[in-house]
């Protein structure tokens, strides 16, 4: 098979104990942090090329998170790696009982395109900190960031320790044919099912960070202006391409009009009268996803935004009033800058929307 040699080298590297010394793990994390900081301008440029992210958003949601996590690992790794004494049970009496934290071995990481730097590097460095080898398959939909991730990883790690393999869906399919000790995937439910099926053949443990449909429930007891500011930030950062963004709002009917007014004001404060001209407003990752989003708002009541441009992958912050609960818009994760609003009169009605 195409990658057999690389994977066998990683297996030998792990079995020879080269990933285990805590001092080595910490040194590699320090080197990784140094490389990230020294390549900051390249990271800004790559994310701007792939998603038109501004530097502020890139640092906030990509670089800053990684630096914080590396510092956390460096501070706590030795403590985390120590055996933990636990209370003995009658079954093993008399005994002294401990929990030993051991690495899995060969880890496969398949990372997404929405936060293509952070969500590629973070699981890799976590696996390395835990004493594993890693093969990373970054998303082909963010090619500039994928290329830079590969450069940074290769400048820090031996390929027998961490290997980056770029490619499209067929590359992931080939990698899933190998037997791994752990698989970490972030992405859609559809692809998650494929990965779960491949892992099941060998009973390989997995972490599948998939999509959802997160509602934000708003009653008439809160500060609507403050809530609107927070909703706009959480929904439209990265143009809504965030798995934990509020997918839709469930709002008490008597405050809906006032909430819509504040939401509209906060969008304009954040991105101006025309978000297309804002340096702070990102783009949709590709035309395929933009077409998907444009189809979702067909035959809906658009009360704010709704503009989109296939050529530039621009989709404006958009608010939809009272969409059909049975529509595609409400049946699937939106993963874009579309905010449906559904009203309720009684709390007992909320459950049918969730």
A few lines on this structure:
This protein is of the alpha/beta class and 354 residues long.
* Share in β-strands: 15-25%
Please outline the major beta sheet.
5 strands, parallel
Net shape: globular
Separation of termini?
A: 45 Å
**What is Rg?**
23 Å
Tally of helical runs: 12
Q: Give average pLDDT, whole number.
A: 96
In what order do the strands lie side by side in the largest sheet? 5-4-3-6-7
Quickly name the level 1 CATH class of the largest domain: Alpha Beta
What is the element string, with H for helices and E for strands? HHHHEEEHEHEHEHEEHEHHEEEEHE
Task: Note down, in words, how this protein is organized.
There is one protein chain. With 354 residues, the protein is of the alpha/beta class. The chain has 2 domains: 4-209, Aldehyde Dehydrogenase, Chain A, domain 1; 215-353, Aldehyde Dehydrogenase, Chain A, domain 2 (3-Layer(aba) Sandwich), CATH 3.40.309. Helix content is 44%, strand content 16%. It contains 12 helices and 14 strands. The strands form 4 sheets. The protein has a 5-stranded parallel sheet, with helices on both faces. Strands 8-9-14-13-10 form a 5-stranded mixed sheet, covered by helices on one side. A two-stranded antiparallel ribbon has the order 1-2. Helix 2 (22-38) runs antiparallel to helix 4. The longest helix is centred in the first third of the chain and has 27 residues, at 55-81. The radius of gyration is 23 Å and the shape is globular. It starts with a helix and ends in a 10-residue tail after the last strand. The mean pLDDT is 96.
